[in-house]
Design brief:
Helix content of chain A: 40-55%
Number of domains of chain B: 1
CATH class of chain B: Alpha Beta
Helix content of chain B: 25-40%
Radius of gyration of chain B: 18 Å
Number of domains of chain A: 2
CATH superfamily of chain B: Thiamin diphosphate (ThDP)-binding fold, Pyr/PP domains
Low-confidence stretches of chain A: none
Number of helices of chain A: 14
Radius of gyration of chain A: 21 Å
Structural class of chain A: alpha/beta
Mean pLDDT of chain B: 96
Strand order of the largest sheet of chain A: 3-2-4-5-7-6-13
CATH topology of chain B: Rossmann fold
Low-confidence stretches of chain B: none
Number of helices of chain B: 10
Number of strands of chain B: 9
Strand order of the largest sheet of chain B: 2-1-3-4-8-7-9
Oligomer: heterodimer
Distance between the termini of chain B: 49 Å
Largest sheet of chain B: 7 strands, mixed
Distance between the termini of chain A: 50 Å
CATH topology of the largest domain in chain A: Rossmann fold
Strand content of chain B: 15-25%
Shape of chain A: globular
Strand content of chain A: 15-25%
CATH architecture of chain B: 3-Layer(aba) Sandwich
CATH superfamily of the largest domain in chain A: Thiamin diphosphate (ThDP)-binding fold, Pyr/PP domains
Chain lengths: 359, 256
């Protein structure tokens, strides 16, 4: 079958990826710059095509708890929002992680703090990768740098979420959400049947048949010794995830003497900065983390032996740089460059920063 | 007559429903939760729907309800049970889904979810146990605490000038178009418990019709929080709670 190509916004790609990969339910609340996700879903009427449930909830709090309910029953359920809305969801995300359930949350980040701005930002890195909610948990975090990845990461996010029974996050930003690009879309995949879910996920609350005990989905354990065991089990899972699921892209790193580390739209900008730099004879490469957690620390440590300095480029006041410094154990100069509050740096601005701060 | 002579099937007049587990309930002696749990479990048993029923437990005294129902059960975050129930019912429309919440959970922190779930007309059963107090956390003032009622955070009685008025949320819900059946019951006498069971059965049967929320408030007691012995607590309930929260149907389906 011929490839099917579509021109679409990053936000629409998330919606389309959800419908076509067989997601069971979407629960969301409008917020700029990601409202096209819910709009596209409503316009496409997936409940007629695949039977997917789409519901506009009364708040982000309700959305994430609807996701909690759906996930508890073994369904592939997701929500999307932008920074302030994601802050509201943190309690629910912690519950989902604590109850060890798979779910997908998409954050199309805008500038903060507070109500901030509706323009793009990457200032939710800490909240996402260090646990914005309470307790010792992690979010498997995917950072798309193109509209194609916005599409692809929906299915990948669910795959990882179900593999580790842990919520996954697509950490995008207003640039990737709003920009239009060509996307290769996949065929419609059927949703899982109730019988498949009951058979494949014995933990799911789907109604108690005679042959098993009732399933309880909870994050509550009043006995501290047992709660410690829960935490130990979860941490073991995270170690496995760190060992197996690191994803990254290396661009022009073979001969690099300097390195950009950047994800999402910043990585796109850095690619242009590399072109400009190489015209001037500056050999710079890019490490683009695709998973922000687990963070690609190992490869970064390897690269640190080759390069003379690293510029961590983010649309924030400097958040990912902490993980970069930890990865390279501060053995070489690591500097941060970023614009924030919704300002997108230009490629030449990034190159100037490299020259001024690292060269 | 020996013990063995008595324990015979033909002599059985009352038994534990298999939809309740063997676990010893942690509820205080005299508390209404145990009776309400039992009624729900009996209804699920009698309707033969255990295999396709999903329950949502709240935060509060009944946070551990999942230990007592022999039903697949999810423990929600405080106030959010109706949001979970909404998603579950939409994803499993042929299942029976019920939420079980107290007054702090349903009528304070979860008011938004309560109102919108009822207004959307989700085809679920909502059980609301109203004892006018936060029992689990040690007897603090609840949204439904009566005017003048003493609690840990209204030690001189609820002063409505300062602390606001008790919230009759069930009356609000009865006005919403998505609410199909709204009733207020109690379980502090056997006769009332039987009546309550009829109402809860109705609230579950309604799910087959897909006509909206069936909402059952059960006015209950809190001996520990009210600092009254069980019998005294029931007397107090009758004299005070029922004045503000009168028993009876608030909304019945047309033609019923």
């Amino acid at each position: 079958m011929a490839k099917e190509l579509k021109l679409m916004k990053g936000n629409e790609a998330v919606a389309e990826g959800a419908i076509r990969s067989g997601v069971d339910g979407y629960f969301g609340y409008p917020i700029t710059p990601q409202s096209e996700i819910l709009e596209h879903l409503m316009a496409e009427r997936p409940y007629e095509k695949t039977g997917m449930v789409v519901l506009q909830a009364e708040s982000e709090t309700a959305s994430i708890n609807m996701v909690y309910g759906g996930a508890a029953c073994g369904k592939r359920v997701m929500t999307t929002s932008s920074s302030p809305g994601i802050s509201l969801m943190q309690e629910g995300i912690s519950y989902i992680a604590g109850a060890e359930l798979p779910a997908l949350v998409v954050n199309v980040v805008r500038g903060g703090p507070g109500l901030g701005t509706i323009q793009p930002s990457q200032a939710d890195y800490f909240q996402t990768t260090k646990g914005g909610g309470h307790g010792d948990y992690r979010l498997i975090t995917l950072a798309p740098a193109s509209v194609q990845e916005m599409y692809d990461f929906v299915e990948l996010g669910f795959e990882l979420a179900f593999r580790y029974r842990n919520p996954a996050m697509i950490l995008s930003d207003g640039v990737i959400g709003q920009v239009m690009e060509k996307v290769e879309v996949t065929d419609y995949k059927p949703r899982w049947t109730n019988e498949y879910i009951a058979k494949t996920f014995p933990w799911a609350a789907v109604g108690k048949p005679a042959h098993r005990n009732h399933n309880i989905i909870t994050s509550l354990e009043l006995d501290s010794l047992k709660q410690e065991q829960v935490n130990i089990r979860i941490q073991k899972k995270y170690k496995e995830c760190e060992a197996k699921e690191v994803r990254y892209e290396m661009i022009q790193c073979e001969d690099a003497e300097y390195l950009f580390v950047a994800y999402g739209s910043s990585a796109r900008i850095c690619q242009k900065s590399i072109e400009l730099a190489r015209k001037e004879g500056i050999k710079v490469g890019l490490l683009r983390p695709i998973t922000l957690w687990p963070f690609p620390s190992k490869i970064l440590k390897e690269l640190s032996k080759q390069v003379k300095g690293i510029l961590s480029v983010e649309m924030s006041a400097g958040q990912m740089i902490e993980d970069v410094k930890l990865a390279v154990e501060c053995k070489l100069p690591v500097e941060h460059f970023g614009r924030f509050g919704g300002i997108i740096p230009t490629p030449s601005e990034v190159l100037d920063a490299l020259k001024k701060q690292i060269l | 007559m020996t013990r063995e002579d008595i324990i015979k099937p033909e002599n059985l007049v009352y038994r534990r429903t298999p939809v309740l587990t063997d676990n010893v309930m942690h509820y205080c002696p005299g508390c209404g939760h145990g009776v309400i749990h039992r009624i729900i479990a009996e209804v699920v048993e009698e309707m033969g729907i255990q295999e396709n029923t999903i329950a949502i437990a709240p935060v509060g005294c009944s946070v551990l309800a999942y230990n007592y129902f022999e039903i697949d059960c999810i423990e929600a975050a405080h106030g959010r049970a109706p949001a979970l129930a909404t998603a579950i019912k939409r994803l499993y429309p042929e299942h029976f889904v019920f939420s079980y919440q107290g007054d702090g959970d349903l009528a304070a922190i979860g008011t938004g979810e309560t109102i919108h779930t009822c207004n959307r007309g989700e085809n679920i059963t909502m059980i609301f146990v109203n004892n006018g107090i936060y029992g689990m956390t040690g007897g603090q003032m609840a949204p439904t605490t009566l005017s003048g009622m003493k609690t840990a955070t209204s030690p001189f009685g609820r002063d409505t000038e300062i602390m606001g008025n008790p919230l009759n949320i069930t009356e609000l819900i009865a006005k919403l178009p998505g609410a199909y059946y709204v009733t207020r019951q109690a379980v502090y006498t056997p006769a009332l418990a039987r009546k309550c069971k009829k109402a809860i059965r109705q609230a579950f049967e309604n799910q087959k019709l897909k006509k909206g929320v069936s909402f059952v408030e059960v006015v209950s007691n809190c001996n520990s929080g009210w600092k009254l012995a069980p019998v005294k607590a029931n007397e107090w309930l009758e004299e005070n709670m029922l004045k503000y929260y009168p028993l009876g149907d608030l909304k019945v389906p047309e033609g019923k």
